[in-house]
Specification:
Layout: H1 2-95, H2 127-142, H3 147-160, H4 167-180, H5 184-197, H6 204-217, H7 221-234, H8 239-250
Helix pairs in contact: 2-3, 3-4, 4-5, 4-6, 5-6, 6-7, 6-8, 7-8
Length: about 250
């Protein structure tokens, strides 16, 4: 009987002990849930930071691609101008009855200042001054990456050399720089100038494309569509037209 009573007492003690531990286990579980929630929150914050970093890297890459594209277009444009001057010189020699002599591009004589070849119409201005002013503005973007200084530099160039062949390029660069600063209305004015005043400029299709992008950024889908369709219609097969088609698909 005593053994049975002892066994019953021991069982009761063990049962009571197990029951007493239950709340402790429950509290531990609650703490674990809190820890998991904290861990999930840390994970969400880490992912958010990673997304921000990825976006920053993407923006930086897009800017670099734009700069490289601008540099390539600039070099191509200058090469075209050299070739065109060479052709003009050869044609002039042939018309004068002189034997045509090909010369290296570096040896080509600088064009005389005139409105026809795009030099400044200001008294005392020289083509070398014009070229240096333009190169300085471009280098502020491509080499020094001083975008704030580049904006007034291009504006001064347009004012000082209004007849320069580089004026449409300067307007386009201004538009790009202002667009990067989200000064959309001012950027739009520069791109519009290129589109409306310089129909033969190689910057015109890109300027037209940018007008569509600005309209999209400002929530004007109808105007954006109109600009993109105009790029596709007038410059079919160009890189600007291909980008315009992509934008149209996303509207």
């Amino acid at each position: 009987m005593k053994h049975n009573l002892a066994a019953i007492s021991m069982a009761a003690v063990l049962s009571t002990s197990a029951w007493a531990q239950a709340p402790v286990s429950s509290v531990g579980s609650s703490g674990s849930v809190s820890d998991r929630l904290a861990e999930l929150e840390r994970g969400a914050n880490a992912r958010s930071q990673a997304q921000i970093e990825h976006q920053r890297q993407l923006t930086s890459l897009q800017r670099e691609v734009s700069e490289l594209r601008g540099l390539l277009e600039e070099q191509s444009y200058r090469l075209e101008q050299v070739v065109e001057r060479q052709r003009s010189m050869l044609a002039a020699q042939q018309d004068a009855g002189q034997p045509a002599q090909a010369t290296e591009p570096e040896a080509a004589a600088p064009a005389a200042p005139s409105a026809a070849n795009g030099s400044s119409n200001q008294p005392g201005a020289s083509s070398s001054d014009e070229q240096a002013a333009y190169d300085n503005a471009v280098n502020l973007v491509l080499q020094q990456k001083d975008y704030d200084a580049a904006i007034p530099a291009f504006a001064r160039f347009i004012t000082q050399y209004p007849q320069s062949e580089y004026v449409p390029n300067a307007h386009y660069w201004l538009g790009q720089l202002l667009f990067a600063q989200k000064r959309f209305d001012q950027s739009k004015a520069q791109f519009t100038r290129v589109v409306e005043a310089y129909s033969k400029s190689n910057k015109r299709p890109d300027a037209m494309l940018k007008l569509g992008v600005i309209a999209r950024e400002q929530g004007d889908s109808a105007s954006a569509k109109q600009h993109f369709e105009q790029v596709v219609r007038e410059y079919a097969g160009s890189s600007a037209a291909r980008l315009a088609e992509e934008y149209l698909a996303g509207l």
